[in-house]
Design brief:
It contains 36 helices and 28 strands. It is of the alpha/beta class. The strands form 6 sheets. Strands 1, 2, 5, 6, 7, 8, 9, 10, 11, 13, 15 and 16 form a 12-stranded mixed sheet that branches.
Length: 987
């Protein structure tokens, strides 16, 4: 059998809500048993059944909004289903993956359940039966609901082999992975003690413990105490988990399932079958019993069951070995979780192997001497047992009441190079972006607070690995938070501050689309010694792409532009070096951003910046652009000095008279309506500067040695025309500052580049064309110093657009790049986060699981009634409002309150029909509410809605489903469609 890795875990057991709480309970030897909650049944009404057991706190809580389940459907769902859905989400998060990333994949779901108590409780009164109850009471739906809500398309099945169900589910999941049916599998089980009926059966069989507690292998063992429980593990093939760098709790080396056959009775255990299933599992795993350090036994605490199991364990493990095989049973802590018993034992064992310590067995202080454990090579753990270095093996048994037995062999996780690398991680102050998402503003605040609390408990240190882990796990929900940090103290403060921020509660953190980004590439004049040096130290992606540019330029430049840039060389101000250096920086910044998932919808280059823009757009290849840039710099450097440029806060018409008096001056750039650059002889520019300054006009001399974009560059332009240029139509829209508009069919050939150096830069109109063409939400400046964003702000061509700059000046660092990415993520971008981090920081760190809402409770005792045929008042449920496209959550502003529904009888009829079918309070059903995404309507509910709307609006007549489907975008679109139908049929 191939090896299967356990990479994610979530669970809830009595007294242990979550994996860490479960481990804490085991290590302190705690117990989760207590009195029967009044929500289940009144213990005094059933004196024949023990009034104690193991019960999960808040087992009636279910965040129906998160899973888009209507209140009426949630009330009809088996509580097992309601526990399994959030458990699945948290387990997948624990595996180091955002659950949404697996949507549409062949992920398998294997769930162990026992019996059908909910169906018996809810379906026996035929007058109350509804389609929702029919689906809600199906055992098979325990797995199917997970697959449906998560959009998994792999195998999905529920297993009922009584008490061994969940371990059999794990066995089947492993087999499915090994045959290639799925690449990821969720496996486990759930059990909720809904009524005293099975307890009464145990009582009549003489199997029930009078105090409701299991005491496995103890002299005091006197029967079973029933218990709730839910647990799921995420399984992957070991090689896949290692390749993806996932944390591995333990490795499933082999498992086996068999049956008792015809034994002493259908519910009597069979020692020989138990021995055989252990032997089969060990053979499949390729190990001998003497290597098994401990066994998590079935251990129910019944006299007969314990005796038979110990005889079977002794027959297999009572072989020559250094120390006896340790045994224990978690049922002493929890009680018998029945359908979830196998997964409770498996999770305990996986955690013990992960922490390399086996918890003591409860009640071991009064070992039952009749079990003869010592003679059989077994021992009960009276104190925790530390596991030695190297591989340790452990077994897990689970036996069904009907004779289906399962055993699994687990091993400690292999030591990997990744784990070793984590201990030698680079730069503790490396930057990262920590992300958190939630399905509502309140959910975002809850989860920000939970993350803040967890981070604050950590010792102060680097936060990069935490950030990387959050990018992999805490993304995908509509309301977003992202912050750039270097250490955990900074992170904890930022999380707390965001959780308390009023705008977080108001829903301001929800983007309604993806950002539309344009890259603006700066030209000469922004260069400076050592530009982007700190970014180069801190960004692996930028280093790699600057190396690419350096390699492309070196054959033409004859030296390393990278060394020139990073070494603080003053030659960077000379044109022959400045232009290749700026091109290299522009190319590397743009490639870094695209590598991180920031894809421009359009590009624009200012003068020299057009070369890097053309490469980014696909109009020039890197090598061709490198050749052209080096030649351009050489030609300009060879020109005689004496020219210069000035930036003037005035329009070209305002400068016409002065230019007429100075014939050598020309307009070199039109950056805005009152933002003009003049080029020409230095003496002429000095006279113009003096005149303008006297008039109070702002003038700034540019740090250049030549009169660029003027007739003085004609010799260089002539040389550029002589060599052919390999170019292509741009694949990304390109705003040409040569033409002052979007490039159409004109090639970026030799003539283009020759004209480009002596003709004016038409920045203002080019930017206006770009904004008109793609309507950007963000302009990102690509260059080592801010220039073009200031021009855009002064010109007013991009109102409402956010400006970003990943390298804004001499102190630019990895933090500025990360800030850019964080800002875009908050606005809807899903970056490719991996390249933001050094390999040593790509190490999975545990994060608190998602905190679901506890506002909605669905009882276990009273099944929901059928939806009324006539309008009837519904008990209001504390549900979230449906977000509207303007970003407001409209809770508390019911349409009826403002008169909008009351003024529209068709909309009123639709709203009332929706409240009846879905069980929603009236204020929840706003015009913008979407049927599937917000209200959770499925095809059955749509048919019910259709019938109710037709009954309420007789003038509509009968409408076919095909006619109705296009109108089912939202409550408002359906009302508009029905209104049109009424008008047409009335006419």
């Amino acid at each position: 059998m191939g090896d299967i890795a356990i990479v994610g875990i979530d669970c809830a057991f009595p007294g242990a809500a979550g994996v860490q709480a479960y481990w804490d309970l085991l290590m302190r030897g705690g117990a989760g048993t207590g009195p029967v909650p009044a929500q289940r049944w009144e213990a005094r009404e059933f004196p024949a059944v023990c009034g104690n057991g193991g019960f999960i706190d808040d087992a009636d809580v279910f965040d129906s909004d998160f899973f888009s389940v209507t209140p009426r459907e949630a009330a009809a769902m088996d509580p097992h289903h309601r526990l399994l859905l959030p458990c699945a989400w948290r387990a997948l998060e624990d595996s180091g993956r955002a659950p949404g990333e697996l949507a549409g994949t062949e992920t398998g779901v294997f769930v162990g359940v026992m019996g059908g108590e909910w169906g018996r409780l809810t379906m026996s009164d035929l007058a109350r039966v509804t389609p929702l109850l029919g689906a809600g009471s199906s055992a098979g739906m325990a797995a199917n609901r997970i697959s449906y809500h998560f959009n998994f398309t792999g195998p999905s099945l529920a297993v009922d082999t009584a008490c061994s169900s969940s371990l059999v589910a794990v066995h089947l999941a492993a087999s499915s992975l090994l045959t290639g049916e799925c690449d990821t599998a969720l496996a486990g089980g759930a059990n909720v003690v809904l009524s005293p009926s099975l307890g009464l059966v145990y009582e009549q069989l003489g199997l029930a413990a009078p105090d409701g507690r299991c005491k496995p292998f103890s002299a005091d063992a006197d029967g079973i105490g029933r218990s709730d429980g839910v647990g799921l593990v995420v399984l992957r093939r070991l090689e896949d988990a290692l390749a993806d760098g996932q944390r591995i709790y333990a490795v499933l080396r082999g498992s086996a399932v068999n049956q008792d056959g015809r034994s002493n009775g259908v519910i009597a255990p069979n020692r020989w079958s138990q021995q055989r299933v252990l032997g089969s599992a060990y053979r499949r795993a390729g190990v001998t019993p003497d290597r098994v350090a401990f066994v998590e036994a079935h251990g129910t605490g019944t006299v007969l069951g314990d005796a038979i199991e110990c005889a079977a364990l002794g027959a297999v493990h009572g072989v020559p070995r250094d120390t006896p095989c340790a045994i224990g049973s978690v049922k002493g802590n929890l009680g018998h979780t029945e359908g979830a018993a196998g997964i409770a034992g498996l999770i305990k064992t996986a955690l013990a192997l992960h922490h390399r310590i086996v918890p003591a067995s409860l009640f071991a202080d009064r070992e039952n001497p009749q079990l003869r454990l010592g003679e059989r090579g077994l021992r009960l753990l009276k104190s925790p047992m530390r596991l030695p270095r190297g591989e340790s093996l452990a077994g897990v048994s689970s036996f069904g009441m009907g004779g289906t037995n399962a055993h699994a062999l687990l091993a400690t996780a292999p030591r990997t190079p990744l784990a070793a690398r984590a201990r030698t991680a680079p730069a503790r102050d490396a930057v990262g972006v920590f992300t958190v998402t939630g399905d509502t503003p309140d959910a975002l605040r809850r989860n920000l607070a939970a993350q803040a609390e967890a981070v604050a408990r950590r010792p102060r240190g680097g936060a990069a690995a935490l950030c990387w882990s959050s990018n992999r796990v805490k993304t995908g929900l509509p309301h977003r938070f992202a912050v750039t940090v270097r250490d955990t103290a900074e992170l904890a403060d930022a999380l707390r501050e965001a959780a308390e921020r009023p705008e977080t509660a108001a829903g301001a953190a929800r983007p309604w689309g993806r950002p539309v980004v344009a890259f603006l590439f700066t030209g000469q004049g922004t260069e400076h010694p050592g530009m982007t040096a700190r970014l180069h130290r801190e960004s692996p992606a930028y280093r790699r792409h600057l190396d690419e540019a350096d390699a492309a330029l070196a054959p033409y430049l004859g030296t390393s532009v990278r060394e020139l840039i990073l070494g603080g060389d003053e030659r960077v101000h000379r044109s022959e070096f400045a232009q290749p250096a700026l091109f290299a920086v522009g190319y590397a910044l743009a490639r870094t951003l695209t590598t991180l998932g920031v894809t421009p919808a359009a590009v624009l280059g200012h003068s020299l910046g057009e070369y890097a823009a053309a490469v980014t757009a696909g109009a020039l290849g890197l090598d061709e652009a490198a050749r052209l840039v080096v030649r351009r710099g050489e030609l300009m450097s060879d020109l005689p000095r004496g020219g210069g440029m000035i930036a003037v806060a005035a329009g070209p018409d305002d400068l016409a008279e002065m230019r007429a008096r100075e014939p050598g001056t020309v307009v070199a750039a039109l950056n805005g309506p009152a933002d003009t650059v003049l080029s020409g002889p230095l003496d002429a520019l000095a006279r113009i500067t003096k005149d303008l300054t006297a008039r109070g006009v702002r003038v700034r001399r540019l740090p250049v040695a030549h009169a660029f974009h003027s007739p003085l560059l004609a010799p260089a332009a002539a040389e550029l025309r002589t060599a052919a240029v390999r170019c292509a139509p741009p694949a990304v829209p390109l705003a040409s500052t040569r033409y002052g508009r979007m490039l159409r069919h004109e090639p970026m050939d030799a003539d283009y580049w020759a004209d480009q150096i002596e003709e004016p830069v038409l920045m203002d109109t080019a930017l206006g064309a770009l904004v008109s063409d793609i309507a950007p939400t963000h302009l990102i400046e690509i260059g080592p110093r801010s220039q073009l964003l200031q021009i855009a702000a002064r010109g007013g061509r991009a109102p409402g657009v956010e400006f970003l700059h990943p390298a804004p000046g001499e102190d630019a660092s990895g933090r500025d790049l990360a800030d850019t990415l964080a800002a875009l993520h908050r606005c809807g971008l899903d970056p490719l986060w991996e390249e933001l981090y050094a390999p040593g920081h790509r190490v999975a760190e545990p994060l608190p699981p998602y905190v679901f809402s506890t506002a909605h409770r669905y009882g276990h005792r009273q099944p929901p009634q059928a939806a009324p045929q006539q309008p009837a008042p519904l008990a209001p449920a504390p549900l979230r409002a449906v977000p509207s496209p303007d970003g407001e959550d409209r809770a508390g502003s019911a349409p009826g309150a403002s008169g909008r529904v009351a003024d529209d009888p068709v909309l009123l009829a639709v709203v009332e029909a929706v409240t009846e079918v879905g069980g929603y309070p009236r204020e929840r059903v706003v015009r913008e509410a979407r049927f599937h995404e917000d209200l959770g309507f499925d095809s059955v509910m749509i048919m019910q809605l259709k019938n109710r709307v037709e009954a309420r609006l007789p003038r509509v007549g009968e409408v076919s489903v095909q006619q109705l489907l296009p109108a089912l975008c939202s409550v408002g679109t359906l009302a508009e469609f029905l209104g049109e139908v009424i008008m047409v049929r009335s006419a």
